[in-house]
Amino acid sequence: MPPKFKFTKDEIISAALNLVRKNGMSALTARALAEELGCSVKPIFGLFKNMDELQQSVFSAAKNLYQSYLQDSAFNGEYPVYKSAGMAYIRFAKEEKELFKLLFMRDRRNEKIEENREEVRQFTDLIMEKLGISEDEAYMFHLEMWIYVHGIATMIATSYLEWSDTLVSETLTDIFTGLKHRYLQKGKE
Amino acid sequence: MPPKFKFTKDEIISAALNLVRKNGMSALTARALAEELGCSVKPIFGLFKNMDELQQSVFSAAKNLYQSYLQDSAFNGEYPVYKSAGMAYIRFAKEEKELFKLLFMRDRRNEKIEENREEVRQFTDLIMEKLGISEDEAYMFHLEMWIYVHGIATMIATSYLEWSDTLVSETLTDIFTGLKHRYLQKGKE
DNA sequence: AAGATTACGCAACAATCGTTACTTTAAAAA
DNA sequence: TTTTTAAAGTAACGATTGTTGCGTAATCTT
Which H/E stretch holds residue A186? Predict the structure, then answer.
């Protein structure tokens, strides 16, 4: 009886993500999104309770996009498993600067990295096995490595640094090697 | 003939900086600042052309505060000169999270670190002398070191990481040592 | 002490935001 | 074909922002 929906939730989220990836979350206004979709604001509020709910959806969509970067990098086989995660993080920072800021340069007062070791368990396990060090050491190893990856990524996302994939790759290897020597030496003392 | 000014430019900037350091630049509105000062918005626009000009002034004030961190750390003598700069950067990130974001986590499309080598000349000179490597190598050395410092600082500023000064200091030394070995070895090849 | 000058407080303006009555209209059901 | 139902369009509302005109009042000059 009623007219069909002009847009699906996914179409709206996709258009919203498009706005956000170009100019950040602040560019996501009801009217701007309506213009992007070529309609009034009504269809938006028909499918989403309010702009907050839509923002959450866009945030999730951004996470999914990052996950696809991780997957692609891992299955690509260009790098070893552990390294491919770092390369994906940095490539995401380069190609999706606004989304990277949204996901990884936001305030995290309620989710400290030190508190959710579980999330990085896959990485620490890899390192434990590869280097034959304890879990605590592997955790610190990964944290130090990730600080470096995060440093490069944030610099690239803010357009403060422009490094080629090759240079990034070489440097990550150097850093990894340096860390490895330090941690293996630590074990001998 | 006219009544006295109720506030000086510096007083206004100081109050504005107070708002920004607590809740970021978006918290700096004309009315909020007027409330903070206990006056109407008129005195603000009497001394500043518009809010943009005031924002610039607050930005400069934030830079000055960071400079004082650098100075204090350098003259303190707790760390070697080069290290004190990194420690100051990280301490600033910890104690002035919002100002750190404002200064060092903003978009820099027009001022790439690779383009203004001059700004970091003081550091590269230090490293050239200390390690006896070329200017290009010293620049890369500093860049790698600074990526690490920046990584820690941004994590701390976003409350994603909480490290004691001691842990930061020890880790920076380890990283520095690792880098030094790599760069000295590179020279021998 | 009176006058001139101008900073200040009040209140309004336009612009922009999220949100929502009210109306229109498309499309399924009769 | 007509009726019904709800999605979509229009346009308004209230809130918040920067900014400014107007009247008041403070203080220096005379």
Answer: helix A165-188
Q: Which of A139, A142, A150 to mutate to test the interface with B (most CBs of B within 10 A)?
A: A150
By the CB < 8 Å criterion, does A115 face chain B?
Answer: no
Q: Are A58 and A27 in contact (CB under 8 A)?
A: no
> How high is the pLDDT of residue B75?
96
CB contact under 8 A, B160 and A113: yes
Q: In the prediction, which pLDDT does A185 show?
A: 82
Q: How many CA atoms lie within 13 A of A23 on its CB side?
A: 9
Binned at pLDDT 50, 70 and 90, residue A188 comes out as low
Q: What is the mean pLDDT of residues A60-79?
A: 97
- CB-based burial of residue B38 (10 Å sphere; 0-12 exposed, 13-18 middle, 19+ buried)? exposed
Tokens of B31: 């009315």
How far apart are alpha carbons B49 and B69 in whole angstroms?
Answer: 30
CB neighbour class for A42 (10 Å; exposed up to 12, middle 13-18, buried from 19): exposed
Residue B145: CB atoms within 10 Å? 21
User: What is the Cα–Cα distance from A15 to B178, expressed in whole angstroms?
Assistant: 47
